[in-house]
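Incident review: delayed structure delivery

Summary: a single-chain prediction request sat in the queue longer than the usual turnaround. Root cause was a stuck worker, restarted by the on-call engineer. No data loss occurred. The affected request and its eventual output are reproduced below so the record is complete for anyone auditing the incident later.

Affected input:
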Amino acid sequence: MKNSLLFFGVLLLAFSFSCKKKNLKYVIKGTITDSSFNAPLSGATVTIYVTTTSNNTPVQKVALTTDASGNYSYELDRDKLQNVIISVEKDHYFGDETTTTLDNLSLEDDNTFNYSVYAKSWVRLHFVSDGTKTIKYYKQVGKTGCLECCPSGEVQLDNVTDQSVYCINNGNTQYQIFYDVQGTSNNGTLSVNTVPFDTTDILISY
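Output delivered after worker restart:
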């Protein structure tokens, strides 16, 4: 009888352990901050994708919306995961994305992924001249490394009378260029603080 009870106890313990193992979850949470206004970003979409040991193509698990405090949280089943991809997006904001391996996630503690994103803004470089001069300019301060960003290298414009170049930037941050009108002493630095969701002008008259 005692042996039977012992055997039954071992089976129950094994079954309980198996159930717990199958129900293991990763808690993924964090806060999204609006860096342009130094405030929580509500209404941002946080999408979580995963790849598995048998499929390297990212599969969407969930799309969350941040609350009024910019928070999000999700319990991700362990399964046979390989990578977890967390993507942050909101209209008129620059997005962000993180890819992490399973080895970097904890089952015992919360996995916190915080993000700071900027509102989009634009600067209009407005060149006005008599159509006989050459001007060279380059960006000294401003957003780099995005698909929409203007180049950081030197740009040359010839025989301009009235021309505008639009460049994207992080909202509420500085945008600065250095310009040099060839064959003259007219050169210098011009900068503005770009307004979120709007376009700010820099006039270059030469």
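Verification: The radius of gyration is 27 Å.
Action items: add queue-age alerting; document worker restart procedure.
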